[in-house]
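Hey,
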Amino acid sequence: MGKYFGTDGFRGEANVNLTVEHAYKVGRFLGWFYGKNHDDGKAKIVIGKDTRRSSYMFEYSLVAGLTASGADPYLLHVTTTPSVSYVVRTEDFDCGIMISASHNPYYDNGIKLINDKGEKMREDVIEQIEAYLEGDMEEPAFATRQKIGCTVDYVAGRNRYMGYLMSLAVFSFKGMRVGIDAANGSAWSLAKSIFDALGARTYVIHAEPDGTNINNNCGSTHIESLQDLVRREHLDVGFAFDGDADRCLCVDENGDIITGDHILYIYGCYMKKRDKLVGNKVVTTVMSNFGLYKAFDAAGIEYEKTAVGDKYVYECMSEKGYRIGGEQSGHIIFSKYATTGDGIITALKMMQVMMDTKKTLSQLAAPLVFFPQVLKNVRVTDKTEAQNDEAVKAAVAAVAEKLGDNGRILVRESGTEPVVRVMVEADTTEICEKYVDEVIEVISQRGYTI
């Protein structure tokens, strides 16, 4: 990770540590960098954004930088991150930009960069952008006269993406009662239309974005209101997306949460039974629950573990040809259909398993029994120093020794926030709480907490 770009793009509070000047310069660099590959100097770059108030500001800044360097920006307007990935990889674009801070509060925002294959931008390109932002390279020449870029309204690209999603459904959803929490974000204008078109009776909440209510007590990080909706309306299933709809968590017919680990288990088993599970492997991250691995063992399914971040999950899948992988948080990648996590595809695939097996989501998830887990986030002055402090490391080692084979502790830094995450899994929640608090107390005593 560099000074500006983390595991999921350049993220920060709007006009505090991610400013319009940063966005303008990112646009300037990308227009120049990709323009070099064209005889006429004109790169084609597609841009999407979520519903944050600042997303419009950053869109205009990026467009100014891109056109000033001679690139033609194509605007998808409010859309999802996976839709940008889809449009880039299926049409003739040099790269894509998504303006979103995903599940973060409305006052944060981010710039996610996607290469021409629909994947996260290569690190060598990110390093060059960082160098430009730091003033370590010359300013690109400004385009003049007919070489100045032209902005193109490209809502047609988003519509094609919606058509693609509908084409993935192999069953009609007629007779199914489905709840959707759009998080007042990108999915508000897409998800209901897709489920309605496929025949579901769709109940939607949090689909009235006002620029400041994205992820506000709603969506995949605040799933309680979707649980209430499913119970109140006696729905068959509910799906909750995050701000840019690249993740999805589910609610079963009883109103219970179905996490990303459940989704990996359910679809992994479904693929294995159909002999579609390449390498007999599912890719997880180190944050997946012990219970998932025990359930995989019982089902005869193997697995690989990566560092936290869908970027690392996809890299493993791409390198080895695996078909499914993801995170407990709901970033699920179906590599046959997408190059990034896609919340709506995840929802469609869960519907497919339910319709094909004629089982409820609770029945499909029943063999997976979670170990109690407690995860707490600690805001710190320097997450790397806090994690590498000798006293903190000693406290972590002491907890690991006490847990033995009956649990585990994991301490890691966030890739997008000034946060250290402390997670413990053990036989009881009380034991988890005790050991998490022990480590956090040491972090605080050492003076790292904000």
